[in-house]
Write a structure and sequence with these properties.
By secondary structure, the chain is an alpha+beta fold. The protein is built from 8 helices and 4 strands, in the order ααααααβαβββα.
């Protein structure tokens, strides 16, 4: 598990810098290209994260070979990750950055778990209700989890609304166990 506070700090700083310089779109595009390149060329990513090589050596290589193709803010961001030994968190920081951009645009990712697949009409009503409640554009990720028995579990922005039968049964069980005989 990566260091979540570090990921949040880097992604938030990156977001604010790109926003202040009107470079959100360019930076987002650069990060997407780098993520695709690192996924395609694993050896390149391993080189940039290799602790046996000097950080300055890796930074210079990056600056010379990939840097010229990137916006200055993107280049500097990756150089900082290399120099600080945080390059291994690149994908998580990238994802957190994209999430932050979507949030700023009023786009909210919501994960909904249900015991059975939801009907299209119910999905539409649920989306509308969530958009009203959260005051934004909701993108649903639907997931079936038969262990829930019935009901829904809704997750967004590190919040969970658990309306599943399973959680209610567990709650009832815990209450019964705490009752003194």
């Amino acid at each position: 598990m990566k260091d979540l506070p570090v990921i949040r700090r880097y992604s938030e700083a990156l977001y604010q810098l790109a926003r202040d310089r009107n470079a959100l779109e360019r930076l987002g595009g650069d990060l997407e290209e780098l993520a695709a390149l690192f996924a395609q060329e694993e050896a390149l990513f391993k080189f940039l994260t290799n602790p046996t090589l000097g950080r300055e050596e890796r930074r210079q290589w990056f600056r010379k070979n990939l840097g010229p193709h990137l916006a200055p803010v993107t280049r500097r961001f990756v150089e900082i990750l290399v120099l600080k030994g945080r390059m291994d968190a690149f994908s998580e920081i990238h994802e957190a950055f994209l999430k932050r951009v979507r949030l700023a645009k009023g786009e909210i990712d919501v994960r909904v778990k249900s015991a059975v697949p939801l009907a299209k009409g119910l999905v539409k009503k649920l989306t509308q209700a969530l958009e009203e409640r959260l005051r934004g554009t909701v993108t649903l990720a639907l997931e079936v989890d038969r262990r829930l028995l019935a009901g829904l579990v809704v997750e967004y922005e590190n919040k969970v609304i658990d309306g599943s039968a399973r959680s209610r049964l567990e709650e009832m069980r815990n209450q019964l166990l705490t009752v003194e005989a």
